[in-house]
Amino acid sequence: MTASSKTKPTRKTKATTEPKASAEIHKLLLEGLPHAVILLDVHDTIVFANPAAEQFFGIGHTVLQRTQIADLVTFGCPLLGLVEQVRRTSATVNEYGVEIVLPRSEASQLVDVFGGPLLDDPGLVMLILQQRSMAQMIERQLSNISAARSASGFSAVLAHEIKNPLSGIRGAAQLLEPGLSDEDRALTQLICAETERIRKLIDRIEVFGDERPIARDPVNVHDVLEHVRQLAQSGFARNIDFRQEFDPSLPSVPGDRDLLIQAILNLVKNASEAIQELGGTGGRIIMRTAFRPGVRLSVPGSGTRITLPLSIEIQDNGGGIKPDMLKHIFEPFVTNKINGSGLGLALVAKIVSDHGGVIECDATPRHTTFRLLLPLQRTGNATKEVDHG
After folding, report:
1. Whole-number Å distance between alpha carbons of 306 and 200
2. Number of Cα atoms under 13 Å in the Cβ half of residue 90
3. What angle do CA 337, 338, 340 make, to 5 degrees?
4. Beta-sheet strand order (sheet of 36-40)
5. Residue 14, number of CB atoms within 10 A of its CB
6. Which of 116, 165, 239, 330 would bridge with 349, disulfide CB 3.0–4.6 Å?
7. What gap in Å lies between CA 262 and CA 258, rounded to an integer?
8. d(C-alpha 361, C-alpha 316), whole Å
9. Within the chain, what is the greatest distance between any pair of CA atoms?
10. pLDDT digits (tens, 9 = 90+) for 108-166
11. Of 28, 37, 45, which is closest to residue 126 (Cα–Cα)?
12. d(CA 232, CA 380)
């Protein structure tokens, strides 16, 4: 009796500690998932949110865990209907390509949603949100870099085959000009002007053929963005409202400051033109920076997975981009502008690729966002870490 009575507490202790260990493991797994996971009670109030959900909604868990899901999304959001369907049917529901607009940040996210009741407590509903942009980022990245490389080979041949005869045409026109009448001289001047215009276009295309590695110095992205804003507001975007939403703790980007200015200036100029097409009134461009831990991609040219946590966004409320053009906008000679060359965004994609980053675009009418994801400044072989807790 004495021996058996001594063994009983041991079995109870084991039985009570195992569930605690199991629950702790489950919590760690949920917190480690790269997708947003939230748990709703019977009143649709969030009672659990993992770190990915905090990042998705842009709100800390303390606030999230006393907020109803309806207060985080716009009225009529499909996510609310999905929760209602789960409660009504007590069954799991999957929906793909669900657009969620977050009023707090005015951001639009395209996600795949899994929703279902918990078996142990059917009153609780779990939602998993997988951002499609993240799932498609590698495919977009490869497509953008492939387009830039195609332009590189094409530009080298084009520049050589066109520039030489252009010089001959211009030289012949200049030799003829002195012996011509005023009326005919105007024609030779037109020939010279047009050959010069073509030469400048070839110079722009020739940039794609430059395969030399870029100089990599520490660059403060906020200095770059501020410089671009000053250039824009003193010229082509003087009537547009600029807003800056910066994370002041971001470290430097390894790269070429002038090239980064060129890339972002191209994006801001496009945003300005999109606003001007709608009349230019009430135009707004938001420059946003953020730290996005956990973004790791295999960039072509590198044998390892690269961390790309620095996010630079240029957002405008212009007319947007046609859906059928969205997948091709970083390809050379693709444009919807009457006088556009279709080289601006292709050049931006090349510059971002040369910096070891990726670029993507989310576009709806009155809400277009170009997002650059770049690596951190490296010290030796280690990436410089930053405390964003």
Report:
1. 36
2. 5
3. 55
4. 46-49, 36-40, 125-131, 107-117, 93-102
5. 9
6. 330
7. 6
8. 12
9. 127
10. 677 888 899 988 787 899 999 987 654 455 455 555 555 555 555 555 666 656 767 78
11. 37
12. 36
How many CB atoms are located within 10 Å of the residue 385 CB?
12
Q: Can you tell me which residue has the tokens 């094409």?
A: 154
The pair of structure tokens assigned to 220 is 């403060």
Which contiguous run of DSSP H or E holds residue 270? helix 257-276
162 with 198: CB under 8 angstroms? yes
| Model pTM score | 0.52
What stretch of H or E contains 171? helix 132-176
Q: Is the dihedral angle over the CA atoms 197, 157, 341, 311 positive or is it negative? A: negative
Give whole-number Cα distances, 243 to 8, 48, 225, 275, 370, in Å. Answer: 67, 33, 11, 15, 15
Residue 339 tokens, joined: 């006088």
121-126 LR contacts (CB < 8 Å, sep 24+)? 122/90, 123/41, 123/42, 124/39, 124/40, 124/41, 124/42, 124/47, 125/39, 125/40, 125/44, 125/83, 125/86, 125/87, 126/37, 126/38, 126/39, 126/40
Q: Please spell the DSSP secondary structure of 220-251, one letter per residue.
A: -HHHHHHHHHHHHHTTTTTTSEEEEE--TT--
User: 257-276 and 344-354 are packed helices; what angle lies between their axes, rounded to 10 degrees?
Assistant: 150
365: left (phi over 0), alpha (psi -120 to 50) or beta: beta
Cα distance between residue 24 and residue 26, in whole Å:
5
Task: Write the DSSP assignment of 305-365 as a string of letters.
Answer: EEE--EEEEEEE-S----HHHHTTTTSTT---STT--S-HHHHHHHHHHHTT-EEEEEEET
Question: Which residue reads 């047009």 in tokens?
Answer: 194
pLDDT at 269: 92
Rounded to whole angstroms, the Cα distance separating 89 from 8 reads 44
pLDDT tens column, 331-355: 766 666 655 556 778 888 888 888 8
Q: Which residues fall within 8 angstroms of residue 378, CB to CB, at 6 or more apart?
A: 254, 384
Q: Are 219 and 252 in contact (CB under 8 A)?
A: yes
